[in-house]
Fold these 3 entries.
Entry 1:
Amino acid sequence: MGTCFDIQRFSIHDGPGIRTTVFLKGCPLACPWCHNPESQARSVELRIVESRCIACGSCGPACPEGLAGGPTLPDPTSCLQCGACAEACPTGARQQVGRSYTVQEVLDAVDRDRPFYEGAGGGVTFSGGEPLMQAPFLLACLAEARRRDLHTAVDTSGFASRETMLDVAALTDLFLYDLKVLDPRRHRQLTGVPLAPILRNLETLDDAGARIWLRVPVVPGYTDDRANLEALGTFAAHLRHTRRLHLLPFHRLGGDKYSRLGRHDGLEHVQPPSAAAVDAQADFLRSFGLDVHIGG
C-alpha cells in the first residue's frame, strides 16, 4: 500500500506525450517555493476551503473526538485525520488530502487512458512530493507498469540512497530530475537537505546511461541569479549523456493551498518571472551546450 494525494489524468507537463501523473505523499525537502504543499507530509491531512463553507454544522457531530466544526482547521494534536468530517461536509469545504492505494488501484486508474498514451507517446509519471520516499510502493508500481508495457517516468529531487536510485532506474524509462541551487550551503538553508547526495545520484544515473531531463525552477531571488545559473550550466555540461534541461517558471497557482492547510506561504511576495527574463536565462544556459526548454 502507498499514500497518494492525487492521480491526475491528461497531464502534458510531466514528461513526453499525454500522461497520467500519480502524486505520492511525502518529501524530505522543504522548498519555500513548493506549489504542492499538501505533498510534503507523509501522512494524510485535512484542508479547508473556507469559501465553500455554508456553516451547516454537519461536520461537528461527525467528529469522533467531538472537535468543533466550521471553516477552521481543528487542533492537529487532537485530530485523528480520519476524514469523518470531510465525508459529512455537503459542499466539499472540508477535504481529506491523501489516501491509501494498492498497486492494482493505481495501475488500473492509469490504464484507463492507454489509447491516449499509445497515440501520443505518453505513459505514467510518478511524482510527489518525493516518490522515492515510498520506494517499496514506487518500485512495485513501476514493475506493474512495465508488466503492462507502459512508459514510465519518475519526477524526483534525487535525495535518496544510491541503492534506491539504481533500483528505481532499472524500471524507469525517464527521470525528471530536479536541480534547484548549486551552492551547498544555500541549498541546505533553502531545502533543509544537503546537496551532495543529489549530485552524486545524478552522476550515477548519467554514468549508467539513464534517460534524464533536468528541471530547474526559476524563482526570482532564489534560483535565478547568474552565479547559480552558471553553476547549473557548468555542472550539467560535464555530464556524459544528459543534455536536456527544462526551466520551470515560478507561478502563484499554489498560493491558496497553504492557507487551506493552515500554513503560511512564505513566498507570497514573489511574483512570476517575466517571459523576457526566462528567455534570457534559457539562452545563457544554451551557451553551455545544453538543449534548453521552457516549461514541461
Entry 2:
Amino acid sequence: MPIDPKNYAWLDNAGKVVPPLPRMVVEARSLVGVHEAPGAVDNPAILKWAGEVGLNHEYTADSVPWCGLFMALVAKRAGKTPPAAPLWALNWAKFGDPAGQPGLGDVLTFIREGGGHVALYIAEDATTYHVIGGNQSDQVCFTRIEKGRLHSARRPHYMNQPASVRPYIVTAQGGVSTNEA
C-alpha cells in the first residue's frame, strides 16, 4: 500500500523543521519510484544494485524479494556496512546497534507470513510505523506497517549522530501493508 511521497514533504525542510537527514534516508528517498518489472522481465536497475553491493551471484531476478538488496544498497551508498547475508531481511537485526525507541533512519525488521521485511523508519502514528523500503508493493515507496509486526529496531553506527535521528509522530494516512513479499 504505497503512500504518496508528498505526505513526507516535511523531510525536505532539512535544517528548518528537521535537521540534516541521516544519509541512509537521503539515499533511500533518491530511489523512490523504482519498480520491479512485471512478469519474467527484470528491471536492469535492480539487478545493477546487486552488482554494486557485490551480490550479483546471489541475486539474479527482481521476482526474488529484494528489500534486503535495497537496504544493502542504501547502506553501502551511505558509507555503512551491511550485515552478512543482507538479502535475508531478518539478518538486518544484526546491523548497527539496538535502537530502543526507533528514530528517523533506523533500520526496522518485521515479521511477515513466510519470512521477514526490512525498511527504514521515517515516522509513526499510534498503530503503525511509516517506513521507506524496497519491494513494498513491488517498488521503492513509503508505506505503513503495524507496530505489532516489529522484530527489531537497529541504529546505524554514527561518528556524529544527526540531531534528526529521533521519533516523529504523524497522522495516520494511507493503507497499511500486510505482506511485502
Entry 3:
Amino acid sequence: MTAVTDTNFTDVLARLRARPLYLWGAAQTGIGVLQALRRLGISPVAFIDKRWESLRGGVSALPVVSLADALTRCGATRPLILNTSTLHTDAISLQCEEAGLSLADDFLSYEQLCPVDFQVIVSSVCNLRCISCPVGNRADHESGSFMNADNYTLVLDKILSEVPLVSIVQLFNWGEPFLNPQLARIVEVTNSRGVLCSISSNLNLRKDFSDVIAAKPAFVRVSMSGTPERYAVTHTGGQWELFLCNMESLAELRARLHPDMTVEVAYHVYATTTPADMDRARALCDRLGFVFRPHLAALLPLDNVLDHVDGKPLSAEAQQTLDMLKIPLDQALTLAREQRHMQCSFERTLNIESDLSVRQCGLWVRAHDNRVVNNFLTTPLSRIMELRRASRLCPLCKAQGLHRFCSVYTDRSTAVETPVA
C-alpha cells in the first residue's frame, strides 16, 4: 500500500506531471486511468495502443499512437509511459526496453500506483439459482441484501480518499445488480466522482433498464449459456425468450441513450456446448454490436473445490455442474497445482459486500474464513490490508493451488471450440 497511502504519493504526482505522459492501452482500463488522472489535474499526451491505426479518431478526446510515434513526438525529451494493462505487463515492458527506454526511469505500471482494485457489491440478491454459482449450489451462502445509494456514496468517497488513482469500480459478484432499485443513482454517483463502473446482469428480469443505461455505466457484462433447449439448466430458472428480448432491448437502449457503453457477453462454455451453439451466440452478438467473449465454465465458489479435495460430499447442483465441465475438476486441479508458484490474480481485489463488510476473497463464501472486517466505513484501509495479509485463507488457498484454479479455465478459453486434451 505504500505507493498510494504514504506521503510519497505527492512525489508520484509530480513525476507524472514533469514529462510528456503516455498511457499504454486505450481499452476500458486505460480510459478509467485517464479519467482518474484528469480528476487529479494531470493531462496525458496520448494513448499508445497496438490498434492505433483503427483508432485514428482518438479515444476520450485523446490521440492514439504507436510507440514509435510517441518517441518521435517527444524528440530529445524522454516520454514517461504508464502501462494501464494488467494482463500484458511483461510484453509491454520488453517493447519499451527494446525501444531504449529505462524501466526504472521511463516506465510505470498502473498496478504500482493503484495496488488495490475494488469490487463493491451493490446487490447480493439474485433472481436465478445457477448450478455453477454459490447462490444455486451452496446451502451456506449468506442471504442477500442491497447497498443503498447513500452508503455507496460514503464507500466510494472513502475509497477515493485512500486510493486516489482508482479508475474503475466493479459493482457485482454473486448477485444481480439490476435488482437494486437504486442502481441508476449509484451509477450517477460513480460518474460524478470521475470513476468508471462496470455492472453485470443475467438479463432475465422483467424490468425497464432505461434509467440505469441513461445513467451511463461504462461497461455491462451479460452472462449467457446454452441454447433455447438447455438455457434453463445452466442459467437455472431462466427463460430463454425473456433473455433474448432483453438483449434486443439493451442494444436499443445503448444506441439511444449511451452509445459509448461497452457490452460484453460472457458465454459460458460447457462440455454440452456445440460449435453450432457458439456460432449462434456469436452471430447474435455481432448483430447487436456486443463483444462476444466465450470462456470455459468452472465450478465455483472455491469452497466447493476444497470440499472435493477433502472428500466431502457436494450438493446435487454442484455435482451436476461437475458432470458438465469441459475441463474435469481433477484435471483442472492438477493444472492449477503446476502453477502454484504463480501470482493470484484476485489478491489485489478488495471485496466490499452489500452489508459493508469486507471479504478476504470474492471466490469464497464461508463467512468464518472469509470476513475481514464488519464495516468498511469505520476501518482504515491500511488496517484492512493488514488483516488481509494475516488471514488464514490465502495460505490455505495457495497451498492447494486453488488461487490458480480459475486461471486454468480462463487461460484455455481461446480453444473452447475444440475438445480439451
